[in-house]
Amino acid sequence: MKKVIGLIAVLIIGFVQPALAESKGALDAEIRQTIKKFTQIVPGACNFLNKTAGYIVIPNLYKAGFVVGGEYGEGGLLVREQGFTSCGGSASTFRVASYYSMFSASIGFQLGAQKRSLIVAFTSPSALRTFKNSAKWKIGVDSSVTLINVGGNLDLSTMDFEQPVVAFAFNNQGLMAGISLDGSVFKRIKK
Question: What stretch of H or E contains 191?
Answer without folding.
Answer: none
